[in-house]
Amino acid sequence: GMLGICSGCRSWGTRADQGVRPTTHNGMSKVYLVGAGPGDPDLITWKGRKLLALADAVLYDHLANEHLLDLTRKDCERIYVGKKKAVHAYPQEEICAMMIQRAKRGLTVVRLKGGDPFIFGRGGEELEALVEAGIPYEVVPGVTSPLGIAAYSGVPLTHRDHTKVVTFVTGHDVPAIDWGKIGQSETLVVFMGIASIREIAREIISYGRSGDTPAIAVRWGTRPNQETVTGTLATIAGEIEKAHLKPPATVIIGEVAGLHSKLAWFEKLPLFGKQIVVTRAHDQAGDFSERLRSLGADAIELPVISIQPPEDPGPLDRAIGHLALYDWLIFTSVNGVQFFIDRLDRSDQDLRSFKARICAIGPATKQAIENLHLKVDLMPKEYLAESLVEAFRSERLQGKRVLLPRAAVARDLIPTELEKLGAHIEVVDAYRNVIPEDAAARAHEIFSAARKPDWITFTSSSTVKNCVAVAGRDALEGIRIASIGPVTSETVREHGLTVNVEAKQFTMDGLLQAILDAHAAHPA
Q1: Of these residues, 50, 83, 113, 400, which one is catalytic?
Q2: Is 50 marked active-site?
Q3: Rounded mean pLDDT of 15-25?
């Protein structure tokens, strides 16, 4: 059918809740076999992203990156169907039956498969079942794992000086393959072959291929936990065993494998392989997580804050009703701006009611105001309440009316100090921070894993308090802590924890730079 998508889906973490639904066919919707790509969620096709945003149900594999599920609607049914060798959550026949049943109910079904559906993905079998059941379908190709590995490991599958032939082969059934013929391919890609690579290598060498031919094995290619083992056709099996490399992994044999050390870039990224916990609210974590991933890190989102409207919006609504009476408006966060504007939109007032001068803490808050085509009249040099008070000392506040819409249960420093300067300040709750219901379970999952995260980032005192509340202080021991500024750092220390790095500029950019500086100073 025709596809449509809202412009909001162009960034990670947002969903297309609107758009043209795929048209039904005889009361049924289509099943879409979608290639999820090799692991990096950014490598899914644009069409695949659109379909995920429109799906009523998604059946996804072990090899499909779960970050892609963030692209689905909140009411989308998500079903993990396994295909991990040791744990088949559902047999193939039942997976086909689940797709067919949902399509017959008129649902749009996405079958999300790692890599490409038609490259050792059993996509053909699933389509045959759909054809027999009379279910309409489409296939959306994906980046298959060897292409992802080639790009992220510096191993071009073709090269003018080395390769004119590339062969893909499965390592599942060694006796069924004519290794005398297949093994001589200039570039040989062995899917799912690390368990049998010793036998495969022996076969290939027995047919005359040099044991000195370069070889490389890559596990979880294109992901932050990508593992690479290099060697030769004669040694690669031993190197894999020595490194304890486990499936899923792909082996590439050929002269091009020798280019890895020269052309690799992914594993050289400054934060490659580092697990970094992001504690921001879900709606605000996306940009920061994406920047971490672009630097090679595994961004693990643990939202310990959910931003909600105030329990009683009455005081804010009354302030908006008298907006023209204020001389100053002070915004201390992007959330304050967004929730203030939301209540303004619900009122009979609009931006024309603004008579006040505007003060903002921090560049992100300033940008949120400027996005409304409003000018910021005052911004302190540092992004702290203390700095804001200092900035107002040069203003004549005697008798001025000041409105401060902010989080419930915030510090009293700003209103107290501005009142000393003669201002009449009105503080209203614009929003409140609550702990998400699933935060404790998510924290247990993260901190009880065999490998503890390398870093945890805190962007406010609330993120510290809430994280300790859901995870317990002991769970954070041994994890390096990055703080956005001195107030947050003090809260960390009050809980008996150590701040390893603190941002020099109290922004998300500053927080990221502090982590980068720490790794530059101590790469190990």
Answers
A1: 83
A2: no
A3: 48
Tokens of 453: 């995260």
Q: pLDDT tens, 160-174?
A: 888 889 999 999 889
Task: Indicate the helix (H) or strand (E) that contains 510.
Answer: helix 508-521
The strand pair at 77-82 and 57-61 is best described as parallel
Which residue out of 40, 61, 298, 454 is catalytically annotated?
A: 61
Q: How far is CA 25 from the centre of its chain?
A: 35
Residue at 135: amino acid letter: I
Only one residue has tokens 């809430």, namely 466
Structure token digits, residue 88: 């088949």
Measuring CA to CA, which residue among 435, 408, 402 is closest to residue 421? Answer: 402
pLDDT-derived band of residue 142, with 50, 70 and 90 as boundaries? very high
- pLDDT of residue 466 exceeding 60, the answer is yes
**Strand ranges across the sheet with 401-407:** 306-308, 424-434, 401-407, 328-331, 357-360
User: Alpha-carbon distance 79 to 22, whole Å?
Assistant: 21
The tens digit of pLDDT for each residue in 283-315 reads 788 889 999 999 999 999 999 999 899 999 999
* Number of residues assigned to the chain: 524
d(CA 96, CA 131): 11
Our answer to whether residue 83 is catalytic in this structure is yes
